[in-house]
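INTERNAL AUDIT FORM
Audit reference: QA-55
Scope: verify that the stored structure record matches its stored sequence.
Auditor: D.O.
Record contents follow.
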Amino acid sequence: MKLNKFIFVALAAASISSCGVYKNYERPAEINAEGIFGDAQDGSRSMGELKWREVFTDPTLQALIEKGLAQNSNIRQTDLRIQQAQNSLKAAKLAFAPSLAFSPSGTVSGGWDPYNRDEFKDALGGGAVKTYAFPVAVSWQIDCFGSLRNAKKKSEVAVQNMKYVRQAVETALVANIASMYYSLAMMDEQLAIATQTCETWKKNLEVTKMLMEAGQSNKAAVASTEANYWSICTSVEDLKHGIKEVENILSSLIGEHPGHISRQALATFQTPTVCTTGLPINLLERRPDVKQAEMALASAFYGKNMAKAAFFPALNLSGQGQFTNSVSGMGVVNPGGIIAAAVASLTQPLFAQGKLRANYKNSKAEIEIATIGFQQTLLDAGKEVNTALAAVHVAKAKKELLANQVNSLKEAVDATEKLMKLSSTNYLQVLTAQSSLLGAQLNEVANNYNIVSSTINLYQALGGGTE
């Protein structure tokens, strides 16, 4: 009677001290998202809330993104990993149910005299002895202290984390396809400018040669013009190679063989009117890397609960029943009989070489590590948003300045050509003005691409890019 009271008191005390293992994860109060954008603009609505089809309205680009989402190998592999995590979760849920095993067996035994001597027949049994058994075993672990529950919760976190991994892969895929698509559009414009300039410099070279023959120029001017012409021709070939290289990369990204990528002009991209960061709390709900960091913290939380639950008793119920003709203590009987047994066991760890305490300390350290990682992920996210938004503003501010520069250089080229016809300037000044114009035009196209690229980066930094 005293023993029963002692067991009851011990279990009650263990139950009270183990209440913490049944707690659900909650975001720590020290995780602070305020001010993570720095001086970036906040708004009531964020570009990260837009669907990718609302940002990338080009039908040709939309078709490429859809192909990528359907055929990209990373997406397909991630989907399979999500299935693996879901299978593990199902197994964790079934751990609450009893396990059932059926293991039938049969034995044939006996002695045999190779000389067939009559005096040994009785001693050898006179033939084979056949025994059989059809046992069914049942085992059930009672989750008194949350060990199975926390394992299930940890598996749920793993499934959710894999979904966020897929979102991260999908976000990066959409952004990369869009970025490469508009890179091709930029290089198309640069190639057109370089090709046109190449033709212009070919004519310039012919004119310079005629001027030299007329005594109005010299060999040095011809050589300089010719060198510039070959330089521009080289840049044309480099652009062609760059276009082919990007097309091949983009083809691989969408799961197709290398080939030509159809695209529209760079100017068809329309910057979304919603181009603000949004409130910091929204960042916690959208960015997949922030979500993954929080899932790592949640997983560490349930891991600590599991390590704590290991200190408490484990209650197991088991039973076995079998139909057999080999009854213990009675020999072999036919027909057989049924034997049944039931066992309840309570296992309380007393000494485990310090392993349980070490695991618990490690689990607490893991929570601290995950908390620090979560906060740092927020800081990195805020930095990316601030940098991307600043890049958008700078590129837009430079757009008008570069356009003015190109217009001024066009006027300079026109003016020097007219002055040359009046013989008040030499042809070298015309060539210099044309070189400056080429550089400014290429810079203008590059800046137009920077507007698109920084907008894509901002959209991705805000957690957009998915459906």
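Auditor finding: record pair retrieved intact. Strands lie at 99-102, 105-109, 129-142, 314-327, 331-347.
Action required: none
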